[in-house]
Task: structure prediction
Amino acid sequence: MAEVDLTQAEADALIAMAKYKVDDQLWDYPSLGGAISIPLVSIEKRERFLLDVHRGRINSLKGTYQTRARQVVVLVRLCFGGGPHRNPNGERITSPHLPGWLTDLIKLNQ
Result:
């Protein structure tokens, strides 16, 4: 199995790395309760990433965006439209809400 433990410096480098779609496939925003994982690659094609998009099952304005490296390592995660949660360090975080223009765009695509 591949090594999944990263130092903070390695994680920071992966987060900062430019990421590109691996092909020209067009992706539709997921329907209620749906999810997609878009494959990404670094410019030199040595690192592979996934951009995960999850949409709420009941509340269409609830969802999650996250990037993963090495298939399983979550680098950055944004949860929106839901209740507060605790970060690994114990800090309580309120869930952000989408800007109005994005909310309107999602409603148009329902």
In short: The chain has a mean pLDDT of 86.
